[in-house]
Write a structure and sequence with these properties.
Layout lengths: L1 H12 L12 H23 L4 H19 L11 H20 L8 H24 L7 H6 L2 H6 L5 H19 L8 H27 L2 H4 L23 H4 L6 E9 L42 H4 L2 E6 L1 E2 L4 E2 L6 E2 L21 E9 L9 E2 L3 E4 L4 E4 L4 E4 L8 E8 L4 H5 L21 H11 L6 H13 L5 E2 L11 H8 L1 E2 L1 H14 L4 E7 L3 E2 L7 E4 L3 E9 L3 E4 L5 H4 L20 H6 L21 H35 L5 H13 L11 H16 L5 H19 L8 H28 L13
Parallel strand pairs: 12-13
Antiparallel strand pairs: 1-6, 1-16, 2-7, 2-14, 3-4, 5-9, 6-11, 8-11, 9-10, 14-17, 15-16, 17-18
């Protein structure tokens, strides 16, 4: 009985791999091998009554069986394995490990994959049997059984509820068998009934209370341990545009390190390659082109990684409705260290001379034949056989990158603005690729209709692009998630709109295809986000596998390929300055998906349907549900009390130290109580002007100089904390002093206005906003 339960529980745990490996022979061969080995172990235990002999015999039989099945010469019957058969099986296993490392989910069901699954299942059975029956510790059998679930848990592909049910039931029965002591024959029926009833009660309790407990935010926020989730070899951007491996288990792999330095403004033009320097540092995505540390005037922020922007490795233009395809270019040319790669915008569409930045990069755990480079024009210095594809703006190498390899770029960051894009028309991209091709599918007409409705009142291609970007970035419409739902149709864009869930590949693909339906040339680019500043104060920026990214690029006449960012900020951060509504970009906001549905657009995503619930039937079922609700409510109350206590302690500890963000939030709450508000999309710099405008409109006068200066200083501190490479936080006392000065000045202005209103006198002259 114990051997049968061990085999059944191990076979049930194999169901945890159903979403990780494609269906194939493994789903039949592995359970048969498990039950066959369990029979051998049971027979050995019955014959020897030994503690370790069954496990040793089972291990030998398992190794020999694997060698015979997977190491035999094809077409030849082999009953006993030889050394050559063992070597061939070992080589096949090594091939399977490479397949695991390089594959995306689901992994192909090859013979090598089958060997790994069968060998893993037999190993789990041997350990479960040894613990549960050999040493009499069935509770510890949960550890090897959990090993079958770890890949699914860490990769974010949970198994079905039936797999968990049967595995848990087998384990509980194994526990019951080991815990029930032998008794008199007349007592066996009673003991068996107690065992069965206890098992059923435990399963029912788990099914009833599990969803209730999991519904509480405190439980949902608990992270699983990350055992075994480290990097497994160098990262490679897949040509089939499936970046889930990079974004998931190997997110900690460092692929690039680099530094950003502005070109000395005093450098003579002859030393500045082919481009001129500028007296104004580059605009950053967090500030307007003329922004500085002071919302009105003052020193400007130095350029950083966000100024350089994303690092693009390749582009894709051919889409068949479900996948993007790539063909290698035959128009590669050599280039020199002074050759400007990438076409600069024409003079008619530029906001002045570009800003020059020197970027020095060191390759980490990345193995790529296409070099990650800036999307802006640049010169490139690198050793080795690298060539340039002018049409795709890619640098292609004869050999992949290696750990420690270095290269450098001098990047020309253009002063591109939303106003220039708004006046631009669509252009004809260079090369032979068809950037307007839209695949015909069962839902291509629906996608085209939806794109037209989103951009119905747009007046320019740029405004159309902005409305598409706003539509996809809205968290009310879509949710960022690397767990992509299985395909339901022949149109991947339509499936994404239905599920409302995806990651950067789905967002970029959907916007690119919709732009094509509107007559705007588009492509999908693949590379990395700018990365994060290193914590060792070296000034380096670190790019990891988690920053692997895809985004759409649209082509405008006289400007070239322009990046947009439809992926929500949870992964991508702020969009580029020319497409950021909060930083001078178009304020166009597309309609929500729900508005389009309820407005009768014909778009009926299945995920939007609200399931109806059957009315209660009363009786004991309702009583049980009521007790479950009471238990859940009690648990929730305890969690809330504990959370409240933790919050009170944390708040008291933080009272002594105040950050710029804390001070800004506190001031915003205090101003909101006085009916002075602004939206979340408003930058600190814009908030300063919003407060002053509101006060002038309400009272006829501006803040007093001291209060106005305090508000500007606080906004500057917030901006430095958000965007400066190495910000220095003001002292807590200074932050509190600024808050008090702003509030005192506001109250004084409001009180004066109230006195004037009561006396019938005018509110006084308006103080001009020029100056600070």
């Amino acid at each position: 009985m114990g051997s049968a339960l061990s085999a059944a529980t191990t076979a049930a745990s194999l169901l945890a791999l159903a979403q990780l490996v494609e269906p194939g022979r493994w789903s039949v061969v592995a359970p048969l091998a498990v039950f066959g080995l369990a029979g051998v172990i049971a027979g050995t235990r019955a014959a020897t009554r030994s503690l370790w002999a069954p496990s040793l015999v089972g291990l030998v039989v398992a190794v020999l069986g694997l060698a015979v099945r997977y190491g035999a010469v094809p077409g030849r019957v082999q009953v006993l394995p030889d050394v050559a058969a063992i070597r061939r099986a070992w080589a096949l296993g090594a091939e399977g490990m490479v397949l695991v490392r390089d594959s995306t989910v689901p992994m192909a069901s090859t013979r090598a994959a089958e060997l790994l699954v069968v060998a893993g299942a037999l190993a789990v059975l041997l350990v479960v049997d040894a613990l549960a029956l050999g040493v009499g510790m069935p509770a510890l059998a949960a550890l090897p059984l959990a090993a079958m679930w770890m890949p699914a848990v860490f990769l974010g592909y949970p198994a079905s509820g039936s797999a968990l049910f049967w595995t848990g039931t087998g384990y509980l029965l194994l526990l019951a068998l080991g815990a029930a002591p032998p008794g008199a024959t007349t007592d066996r029926a009673r003991r068996s009934g107690i065992v069965v009833a206890s098992t059923v009660a435990a399963v029912v309790a788990a099914l009833v209370l599990g969803p209730i407990v999991a519904a509480f935010p405190a439980w949902a926020a608990i992270s699983l341990p990350t055992f075994g989730s480290g990097p497994l070899g160098p990262l490679h951007l897949s040509d089939d545009l499936d970046l889930r491996e990079s974004l998931g288990a190997r997110s900690g792999q460092v692929v690039l390190r680099y530094t950003v330095d502005p070109v000395d403004q005093a450098t003579p033009a002859s030393e500045a390659a082919d481009a001129a320097t500028t007296e104004t540092p580059a605009p950053t995505p967090g500030a307007s082109p003329s922004s500085g540390s002071d919302p009105s005037s003052g020193a400007l922020f130095p350029p950083n990684a966000r100024t350089v922007g994303v690092l693009r490795a390749m582009t894709l233009s051919s889409f068949d409705g479900r996948e993007w395809h790539r063909t290698e270019s035959d128009q590669l040319v050599g280039f020199g260290a002074d050759t400007l790669l990438g076409s600069a915008p024409q003079d008619a569409a530029t906001g002045g001379e570009p800003t020059l930045l020197d970027v020095s990069l060191v390759v980490g755990g990345m193995r790529e034949t296409r070099l990650p480079i800036s999307t802006f024009p640049r010169t490139l210095q690198i050793d080795g056989p690298w060539q340039y594809d002018e049409n795709r703006d890619e640098v292609v190498g004869g050999r992949p990158t290696t750990d420690g390899m270095t290269y450098s770029m001098r990047v020309q960051v253009p002063n591109l603005t939303a106003d220039e894009l708004a006046s631009a028309s669509v252009g004809d991209p260079p090369g032979d690729d068809d950037y307007l091709a839209v695949p015909v599918s069962g839902h291509s007409a629906d996608v085209r209709t939806l794109a037209a409705e989103i951009t119905a009142d747009s007046t320019s291609p740029y405004e159309q692009a902005m409305k598409l970007q706003a539509f996809f970035r809205s968290t009310a419409n879509f949710e960022y998630d690397t767990r992509v739902a299985p395909a339901r149709s022949d149109d991947a864009v339509w499936d994404f709109i239905q599920s409302r869930r995806g990651y950067c590949v789905q967002f970029a693909s959907a916007m690119a295809v919709m732009a094509r339906t509107l007559g705007i040339p588009s492509r999908v680019a693949v590379g990395f986000l700018p990365g994060d500043l290193a914590k060792d104060d070296t000034g380096e920026y670190v790019v990891t596998g988690h920053q692997a990214h895809a985004w759409p690029e649209l082509y405008f006449e006289g400007i070239g390929w322009v990046r947009f960012e439809p992926t929500p900020a949870v992964q991508s951060g702020a969009p580029p300055i020319w497409s950021d509504p909060a930083q001078g970009g178009s304020s166009a906001v597309g309609p929500s998906l729900d508005d389009l549905i309820h407005g009768g657009s014909g778009v009926t995503p299945g995920a939007t349907a609200t399931p109806t619930q059957a009315p209660g039937t009363g009786g004991r079922g309702d009583d049980a549900a009521g007790w479950a609700a009471v238990a859940g409510g009690a648990l929730g109350a305890l969690l809330l009390l504990g959370g409240g206590a933790w919050y009170a302690v944390t708040r008291s500890r933080r009272a002594a130290t105040l950050t710029s963000e804390d001070a800004w939030r506190g001031l915003r709450r205090a101003l909101a109580r006085r009916e002075v508000t602004w939206s979340d999309a408003t930058t600190p710099r814009q908030a300063v002007l919003a407060v002053r405008d509101h006060l002038v409109e309400r009272t006829g006068g501006d803040l007093e100089p001291d209060a106005r200066e305090a508000l500007v200083h606080l906004a500057s501190a917030v901006e430095r904390g958000r965007y400066a490479p190495r910000p220095v936080a003001p002292p807590s006392a200074q932050l509190r002093s600024w808050i008090d000065e702003v509030l005192a000045g506001l109250e004084a202005r409001l009180a004066a206005a109230r006195v004037n209103d009561r006396s019938g006198r005018a509110a006084g002259p308006t103080v001009p906003r020029s100056g600070t």
